[in-house]
Amino acid sequence: MAMSTNQQSSISTSTSEQDMPPRAQMLAENLQAVLQRINSVAHSPNSVRLVAVSKLKPASDILAIHERTGHTHFGENYSQELLDKATALPPSINWHFTGALQTNKCKSLAEKIPNLWTVESVDAIKKADALEKGRAALFSTTPSSKLGVFVQVNTSGEASKSGCAPTDAPALAKHIRQECKHLILQGLMTIGAIARSKASDVPNEDFLTLKRVREEVAKVVGVPVEELELSMGMSEDFEQAVSLGATNIRVGTTIFGQRPAKKDAGVKGEASQSVA
Fold this sequence. Notes:
Layout: H1 22-41, E1 49-53, H2 59-69, E2 73-76, H3 79-88, E3 94-97, H4 103-112, E4 116-122, H5 125-141, E5 147-152, H6 169-179, E6 183-189, H7 194-198, H8 205-221, E7 229-231, H9 238-243, E8 248-251, H10 253-256, H11 262-265
Parallel strand pairs: 1-2, 1-8, 2-3, 3-4, 4-5, 5-6, 6-7
C-alpha cells in the first residue's frame, strides 16, 4: 500500500537547519529518524503510514512539523483536545482520533472536524452509528469526505485497554460496511501489550492475533485481506509491528518527547489508553 509523498515526509530542503528554531529542528529530525527506522524494516519503501501522536503537546509542535516536513498525519487521544487543535491548525492536516472513544463524543467529532481522516478506536456498533450520524450531518451542510474507521480489537484481554473481543470484530466490521454509508472501514487496530514486545525473541502475540482477526473479517465482509489495514505499533514496538505487517503506526514520545501528566494538562472527563 504505497503512501503519497505528503504522508511519508522528508525534511524540507527549502528550510535550512540554521533557520529553524531549536525545538522545531529537533521535532523534524525526530520524525525523519522514525521514518528511516520504519523503512529499514518495512517490506517495501514508504509502505507504512506514520501517525505522529501529539497528545498533550502544544499545537505549535504540530505546526512546526507540518510546515517544515510536509507531514500530514497527526493523532490525538482526547476529543476536546482534538477539537481545539483542529480549529487552530491548517485544514491540510489529516487527523486521527486514537484514544478511547466515548459514544457521546462521536457525533461532534465526525461533524465538527471535516479533516478528521479516521477514527482508530471504534469498538462497538453504537459508536459506529454515532459517528455515522455525525458525518451524515456534516455531509448535509458541507462537501466532505467519508470518515475512515478502524475496528479496535483488545487482543491482549487487558482490562485497561479498550477494544472489542476478537470474536466480535467481524460482526462490527460487517455493520460498518453495510449500515454506515458515510464511513469507510479501513481496517483493524490494536494496542499490543508492551511486555510481549519486549520479549524480543518471539513475535508479539497481539500483532499475530490482529492479523488472524483481519483474515476472519475479510471473509465476513467479502474483501481481499490486503484491503484491510493493520494499525499496530507504538514508540516502543513499532519496528516489530512493521516487520509483522503493520500499515499504520502511532508514534508519540519518540517524536515529541515525554508528555506531562494528564492532570497537569487540564484534560478531564475522558478515558485514556496508551497509544503511542
